[in-house]
Amino acid sequence: MSDDRAGAPVKNIVAVVLGGGRGTRLLPLTSYRAKPAVPLAGKYRLIDIPISNCINSEINQIYVLTQFQSVSLHRHIRGTYRFDGFSGGFVEILAAQQTMDKKDGGHDWYQGTADAVRKNLRYLVPPEIKYVLILSGDQLYRMDFREMIATHEVAKADVTIAAKLVDRAAASSLGIMRINAGGRVVGFLEKPRTEEELKDVVMDPAWLRERGIAAGDCLASMGIYLFNRDTLVAALEKTNYPDFGKDVFPATIRSRHVQLHVFDGYWEDIGTIRSFYDANLQLARPNPPFELASAASPIYTRPRSLPPTRTDGATIHHSLVADGCVIGAGARIENSVIGLRCHIGHDVTIRNSVIMGADFYETPEQLAADRSAGRPPIGIGDGSVVENAIVDKNCHVGRDVQVIGDPQQVERICGEKWDMLDGIMVVPKNAVLPDGWRR
Asked: Residue 175's pLDDT is what?
């Protein structure tokens, strides 16, 4: 380690980022991409968060497990994370694949979080590896994993689980832990639904006060696990349990020392359209709960050769605007996130929205093809209004178009070129909305 904080040497730990889930609750944003490849805050992708946390914690041996719609995720990782040849560091992709190993039971697809790691154990068992850090690929947070390693080592634990205090209302969608006075996990309940179930895992307020924790009453697993390598191997090789939360931990708690590591910072699971939308807009507000700019712990992403964003008399309030955009005269942008290469026409209004931008600038030939096909160019055309919406990448939104969500609409409804989820209008990638379009 390069400083005085406790932690394992770099060579003794390997991180595994789980990025293989279908991400069905994030549809249609995951129709063309894996969930960890979903854009975040205009210029990043979700996968950048766990990888950046690893790099900032001096963990530079990182595997990313992928499965569904993974082409753009692979491209992003290959183009972003390259270590010099002398560091021994890597970010390597492990895609689901068919093997000759009969222990796989004939399955080549991952059957759950634990099964995904089980199918790749051979990469995690070199003799120099002491710890395996397992992370999710769809969360927004900033954590120094060296502090978690210190908790693990002081407690002489076999497994350590990072936990965040939440209120009872949020507990039903998370794995909730029960602990003893020493912080050892003695119970694990996945997504408790009833008051009877919650009664066994609600925290003692006195225990929380002693540690200066004021908010929340249940300790929820963050999906961040630190295993002794041999403990992980034994837990996976001796069972066929598919998931950590539902299967592995209830069994492991009975036979191993599973320790709690309390995390008291910002953490958001980006698992639904609503959580994705809210997290992005919170980043654009004054004094955001999660600060993108950090001298000590930057967020890394793919370097791009893009020009600065240009504005011509636009009004922008409480918004994030990424590189390479052109914003026309009279445009008004409020409480929104504007992604890379976004072309916004004159007198456009964008409010409470996430515009993901474009993967490329259109060439003269492509623009001519748009005109020939009667299709607007990529971007937001003059006079259009986008409000309470998410517009995915490479969308052709014409002039005087209205893309407006309805906060009163709770049920999901779908149209030919849009989805409405929880009142948020979502325009999928590559969609074409001609001049004058209305829902």
From this structure: 84
Q: Please determine, for residue 5, whether its predicted confidence score (pLDDT) is greater than 50.
A: no
Question: Beta strand pairing status for 39-40 and 13-19?
Answer: unpaired
Cα(23)–Cα(25) distance, integer angstroms: 6
Q: Quick one: tokens of 304?
A: 């791009």
- How far is Cα 137 from Cα 64, in angstroms, rounded to an integer? 8
Across the strands, what pairs with 40?
Answer: 44
Return the sign of the alpha-carbon dihedral for residues 179, 189, 258, 35: negative
DSSP secondary structure letter of residue 394 = T
Taking each continuous run of H as one helix and of E as one strand, the counts in the chain are: 11, 29
Least confident of 91-105, 149-163, 388-402: 91-105
- Contact call for residues 407 and 423 (beta carbons, < 8 A): yes
pLDDT exceeds 90 at position 2: no
Contact 434, 398 (CB under 8 A): yes
- List, in order of start, the domains of the chain with CATH numbers: 10-271 (3.90.550.10), 310-433 (2.160.10.10)
> Residues 6 or more apart from 257 whose CB is under 8 A from it?
155, 156, 157, 158, 159, 184
* pLDDT above 50 (res 9): no
Q: With contact defined as beta carbons under 8 Å apart, do 217 and 203 qualify?
A: yes
Q: What CA–CA distances, in Å, run from 213 to 208, 209, 264? A: 5, 6, 8
Enter the tokens of residue 224.
Answer: 């961040």
Q: Which of 125, 50, 122, 35 is nearest to 91 (CA)?
A: 50
Question: How much is the pTM?
Answer: 0.91
Please list, residue by residue across 314-325, b when 16 or more beta carbons sit within 10 angstroms of its beta carbon and e when fewer do.
bebeebbbbbbb
Cα–Cα nearest to 140, from 209, 208, 41, 6:
41
